[in-house]
Specification:
alpha/beta; Rossmann fold; 16 helices; binds S-adenosylmethionine; N-methyltransferase activity; methyltransferase; site-specific DNA-methyltransferase (adenine-specific) activity; DNA binding; DNA-binding
């Protein structure tokens, strides 16, 4: 492989960009693209009317930007929550209709839930197929009853776009209406002590358990937020309606993308040390798709989980100099996982090659990862896997990730990481982590 020069692109840091614009912030999703970054990539590597794809679409950032820029697009993701968010973010409804409908479904649900309990026949009927043990682990019986009636009301909605937006509001209400430790992204019950009713009994240094609000309060708040954000973009979405994305919920390694179809594929893949999407989105999965356990949710095929990589074992034939170096130093188990991860990535790179039109571009945004004490330079291995497939490497860019939470403080001379208390002192500089953007061409 020829030597590739990495170009630093400070201009792609988008330090002061508003990442919540359009409908991007309707629902949270981990490791989202910065919309401004994909917007640049779409403009640079496609033209109006072209067809582009994101094969790990997540919350559909690429697809929403593509729609707004007048490109047709395909969104593939194995996570049904991701597909729901992508559909809802690009849905076409009248904002007033959404406001009325969200108030109406809630009013009807509260009406039906009156005098009902978790033991009522009607409620048992509504909860059929759901894992009650899991629901009771996360929700109070009162909130379960209201959620059951609310979901029933939403599912009666015949306009699918409107139903998707209501389901998105429902989904984003679940965590705040549950006993999930509010500040944790991991699925953790809030086990802090209960707030004593008598203020005199409260200790100044104790962090008490959050008072879990009722479903009505959370749903109303979320519905207002979604309606406000959606209303600001509704007109533009309607104008761009012919560019609404096709949304497919599937494992990319089981899905055929076809041959010579796409002008560009723009994506950011899951990591080996991936966020556990299934852990994070389990509440939505229990309610919307009657998923029984987190393990059964994971079995859908999330790359970056052990379950998935075990499936690739037969096909591990990755050859890469960087990977060979890692093989030498890694413990056998770590080595196996790393190899299998790259084998699954190699497979979807081959699918992408086939699906791109000759001359089409493949843009991959990827950072490094740490796994069991090893630093893995993902982009280097990726490049070594991509070139033998036929891709030519046009550019490798490195961009800063200006995220305050990830910034580390380092000593300007020694480069050593400094604890937070050194902030503002001489020689303490803020270092932004970086990620790579690989620009390849078929
Ligand atoms: C880094 S995230 C993409 C986030 C996206 N760029 C956004 O802006 O929201 C990676 C995505 O890959 C998806 N994924 C993991 N394994 C997959 C598979 N086998 N097929 C398709 N998608 C998969 C995950 O569900 C996750 O949404």
């Amino acid at each position: 492989m020829r030597t590739i020069t990495t170009i630093t692109r400070e201009d792609l840091g988008f330090r002061s960009a508003n990442t919540d614009e359009r409908t991007h912030a309707l629902h949270s999703y981990p490791a989202k693209f910065i919309p401004q970054l994909v917007n640049e990539l779409i403009k640079s590597f496609s033209k109006p009317g072209d067809l582009i794809a994101d094969i790990f679409a997540g919350s559909g950032t690429t697809n929403l930007e593509a729609m707004c820029l007048g490109r047709h697009s395909l969104a593939v993701d194995v996570n049904p929550v991701a597909s729901l968010i992508t559909r809802a973010k690009t849905a076409i409804v009248e904002p007033e209709v959404l406001i009325l409908a969200s108030a109406q479904v809630l009013a009807n649900a509260l009406d039906s839930a009156r005098n009902q309990s978790i033991e009522s026949e009607r409620v048992i009927e509504l909860l059929k197929g759901k894992n009650m043990e899991r629901l009771l682990h996360w929700f109070s019986p009162e909130n379960i009853v209201t959620l059951a009636f609310l979901l029933e009301e939403i599912q009666k909605e015949e306009d699918i776009d409107l139903q998707d937006l209501l389901l998105l509001i429902f989904s984003s209400s679940l965590k705040p209406a549950s006993n999930w430790l509010d500040w944790s992204v991991k699925p953790q019950l809030d086990c802090r002590p209960l707030l004593p009713t008598d203020p005199a009994d409260r200790q100044p240094n104790v962090r008490y358990r959050r008072q879990v609000p009722g479903v009505a309060e959370v749903f109303t708040r979320k519905a207002k937020e979604v309606a406000r954000r959606y209303s600001a973009s509704a007109e533009h979405l309607r104008q761009q309606a012919c560019y609404r994305p096709e949304v497919i919920c599937d494992d990319i390694n089981r899905h055929s993308l076809g041959k010579d179809r796409f002008d560009a594929v723009i994506t950011s893949p899951p990591y080996l040390t991936s966020y556990e999407y299934a852990d994070l989105h389990q509440l939505t999965a229990y309610w919307l798709w009657n998923t029984q356990t987190v393990t059964s949710f994971k079995k859908l095929g999330f790359i970056g989980t052990q379950l998935y990589e075990e499936r690739m074992v037969e096909e591990t034939l990755v050859t890469s100099a960087s990977l060979d170096l890692m093989r030498k130093v890694m413990k056998p188990l770590a080595q196996k996982r790393v190899e299998r991860y790259f084998a699954s990535m190699q497979r979807c790179f081959a699918t992408t090659y086939e699906a791109l039109k000759p001359g089409g571009h493949f843009c991959i945004v990827i950072g490094n990862s740490r796994f069991r004490g090893y630093e893995i330079d993902n982009h280097k291995v990726f490049l070594e896997l991509l070139e033998p497939l036929g891709f030519s490497i046009e550019n490798v860019w490195e961009r800063p990730i200006p995220n305050k939470r990830l910034t580390s403080l380092r000593h300007a001379v020694t480069g050593r990481i400094l604890p937070k208390v050194f902030e503002g002192t001489e020689n303490a500089i803020e270092v932004y982590p970086t990620e790579h953007i690989l620009i390849l061409r078929k």
